[in-house]
Structure formats: C-alpha cells, structure tokens
Design a protein that fits this description.
Two copies of one chain form a homodimer. Chain A is an alpha/beta fold. Chain A has two domains: about 10-85, Corynebacterium glutamicum thioredoxin-dependent arsenate reductase, N-terminal domain (Helicase, Ruva Protein, domain 3, Orthogonal Bundle), CATH 1.10.8; about 90-220, Response regulator (Rossmann fold), CATH 3.40.50.2300. Chain A contains seven helices and four strands, in the order αααβαβααββα. Chain A has helices at about 15-35, 40-55, 65-80, 100-115, 135-140, 155-160, 195-215; strands spanning about 90-95, 120-125, 165, 180-185. The first copy, chain A, has a four-stranded parallel β-sheet with strand order 2-1-3-4. In chain A, helix 4 (about 100-115) links the parallel strand 1 (about 90-95) and strand 2. In chain A, helix 4 packs across helix 7. The interface of A and B includes residues 207 and 210 of A.
Chain lengths: ~220, ~220
C-alpha cells in the first residue's frame, strides 16, 4: 500500500491547514527517526498514512495528527524489521475488522499491563470512522482511555515487525506471513452491543491479554 | 510432619463414626493409589492428614472427608515426586497464611482457566478453621464455588512436587526448596474486608493466575 518515491501526485487533496500540519509532523518524525531513515522515506510513509486514513476519517481537523501517529507506528515497525530494535521487548499486533472495538481494547490492556515491556499496535481490515463509543465507555469504566485512539488499516510493515499477530474476526482478510506467530481469538464484535454486553467482551479480552503476556515472558505491572 | 510406620498411637482420638469413615477413605485411596503405594503408606498419609486438620477443624462431621481429600492431594504429590507423572501438566502450589482467602481464590481461578491442563494445590502457614465467607461470596459472584474447600497446612511432599510455588503473605514461614520456581505475589489479605474490597483482591488474583498460566504455556479455557 505504500507509494514509492516516483509515485504520482497525491490522490487526496490536503487543505492548507492540513498541509501546514503535515510539515510540522514531518519535522517531528525527522527528529525521531532521522538517524535511521532519510527524509524521503519519512515523508513517503507520512503521506501514505494520510492517504490511508483520509477516506474513513470523520475528523478532518485531527487527520494530520492521526496520520503522524500512524506514520510513527509504521516507522517504528520498519526500524524493527530492519533489525535495529528486534531482540528487545516483544511486539504484538492486534487485528480485527474495524479497529474500532476489540483490537483497540486489547491494545489498551496491553499498554496497561505491559507498560514499556512490550510494544503494541492495532489495525483493522475495514477501518471504521471512529472508535466505537461503547468500547470507549466500557474501557473508561476500568480506567483506560481510548478517546485518543483511531481506526486504521494494517500495513505489511507493521505485520512483518510483529512477534505475535492476534486476529479477531478478520478471517481470510487477515494477513499471514510465514514465521510470525499467530493467535486467533474468537471474541464477539462489540459493534451494536449494549455497554453491559460490551463489558463481557472487554473482560474476555483482558483475560487473553494477560495470558498472552505470560506466554511472552512479559511481567505485568 | 509425617509419622512413620513405627510411630506411637494416634495423638488425636477419633470418634467411632470418624473411625468408620476413615476406613472407607482408606479403601477409596487404596483403589486409586494401590498400584503406586502400599497400604501402610496410604494409611500413614491419611492418618497424618487427619491429625493435621483436626486441631483447626470446626466441622468434626466433615473431618474424615476433608482428611481424605487432603491425603489424596498429598499422594498425588508423592506420586509426582516419584517421577510417575512429572513431565505431564505443570503443578502449581498457592500458599498464603490461612489458606482461607487468597490461595483458595487463586486455586479456584486456576481450575477454571486451566481445567485439566494444570494441577493446582493450596495451603497456608497458619490454616484457619474455614474458608473466609467473604472470599466465598466474592468468588460465588464470578461463578466459582469455594464452599467445598477447606484450609490446610502445606506439607513438604506437596511443595516438592510443585513446579511453581506462589506465595502470598506467608513471608519467612513460606517453605523454600532449591530448584523450585517461586513467585511472591503482593496481595492484601481479604480477611476482615468487605465484599466490595474483596472483589478487588479477587480480580487481582485472577489477573495474576491468567498471566501465570501463560508463562507455563497452559492454554486457557
């Protein structure tokens, strides 16, 4: 899905505000990743991230910020595949259909329990426009804030960089690369559920994340 | 703590009913363990179990039944140390002070999530007379029945047979054998807590058991 250096002009038009914001994003990412990637690579990943998020985004004001965060995740993943940080803490990628409920919840629990002792990413095969309100509410009840999260697709670079890929409901559309550990969790989609029903999903995901961290030898906080 | 074959007469007197019940227990245990232990060993473990439980038991009617269950656990452990079942599923021993709350809860969660894929035991450094009512209530809320459980001491045979010993609050009185994996969980004693407070303890124990099963490579149900 990434465009290469000689790709045609952007297929998504940016507003002037978005353009300014994207410049600032590129500068921040260059500060962080400039020792590992050249400016062209960083800009290409940032632009591609913007393009991938734009069609489903319902929040044009936040789009540059979300694209920057998506690009950061992908650059971290690229650095890992390049071997620079592999061998450190394990990286887990949670995938579901919309990246709006299950995979967001799982990532929230991974961050809570593993802290810096694991890297977590999430994505969906058909990203929704926003994180599901019922998922946000169920997670808020246990003190985990998903309001800053956003649905996004998975990208090959992130899948390749993950030590474990956990799939929830994406079925045949989930990516498979040889040599990666996969787990398929049968967990109902909270989309359209009441908060009471979503709590059951939330608790099941929490249990599985805790168990997963154990299998990875990651101590829990 | 075990008496040997030439030990003096029982220091705890049995009632006639208890004596009859003990005969039936010995027969059942001989059926189960007769191919691995001789009748004398089985009777000795059963009698010692009775003696260890009698001082703290508030339910004399149930004492023979509890002694039989305690003896069964110890004979299973002895068989494991003897190498007959080692190498199969992992065995975890949960220890706390009274074997009335934390270690009982942990064992309940181990049984729920591991099923037959792990062996679990529990014990206390100073066994109480009964499982804490607040622990029973908090666990009943999540569908785990502790009403059939009973506080008991740890015994060397069980400690030696465990692959992992989890200690909660027994401090210096907890047993330590070289070569055994130990984990110390800092978890408050629910003794004297309200049910609301005990729920927090329960949930923390659940999280740790799930993580532990992951570290042991035990799939969760």
């Amino acid at each position: 899905m990434t465009t290469d250096a000689g790709a045609p002009a952007p297929s998504i038009l940016m507003t002037l505000d978005q353009h300014h914001a994207a410049r600032a994003s590129a500068a921040r990412l260059a500060d962080e990743f400039g020792d590992r990637f050249d400016a062209e690579t960083i800009e290409r990943v940032l632009h591609d991230s913007f393009e991938q998020l734009a069609p489903s985004s319902r929040l044009p004001h936040f789009l540059p910020l979300l694209a920057e965060r998506f690009a950061r995740q992908r650059l971290q993943a690229l650095a890992r595949v390049g071997g620079e940080t592999r061998g450190g803490v394990p990286a887990v990628l949670f995938l579901c259909v919309q990246n709006a409920g299950r995979s967001q919840m799982a990532l929230g629990f991974l961050h809570r329990y593993a802290g810096d002792a694991a890297i977590g990413w999430s994505g969906g095969s058909h990203p929704a426009g926003e994180v599901s309100p019922v998922a946000i509410e169920a997670m808020a009840e246990v003190g985990i804030d998903l309001t800053r999260e956003f649905p996004k697709p998975w990208t090959d670079d992130v899948v390749r960089a993950a030590d474990v890929v956990v799939t929830m409901g994406c079925g045949d559309t989930c990516p498979v690369f040889p040599g990666t550990r996969y787990e398929d969790w049968e967990i109902a989609d909270p989309d359209g559920m009441s908060v009471a029903e979503a709590r059951v999903v939330r608790d099941e995901i929490e249990r599985r994340v805790l168990h997963l961290l154990g299998t990875l030898g990651v101590a829990i906080a």
